[in-house]
Amino acid sequence: MKKTDWSQPLRNRLAEDYFPKMIEFINQTYQEGKVYPPENQIFRAIELTPLAQTKVIIVGQDPYPQPGKAQGLAFSYPATFKVNRPDSIVNIQKELREEGFSKGDSDLTAWAEQGVLLLNAVLTVPEFASNAHAGKIWEPLTDEIIKIASDDERPKVFILWGGFARKKAKLIDGSKHLILEAAHPSPLSASRGFFGSHPFSKTNEFLVESGQSPIDWSK
Question: Any catalytic annotation for residue 143?
Answer without folding.
Answer: no
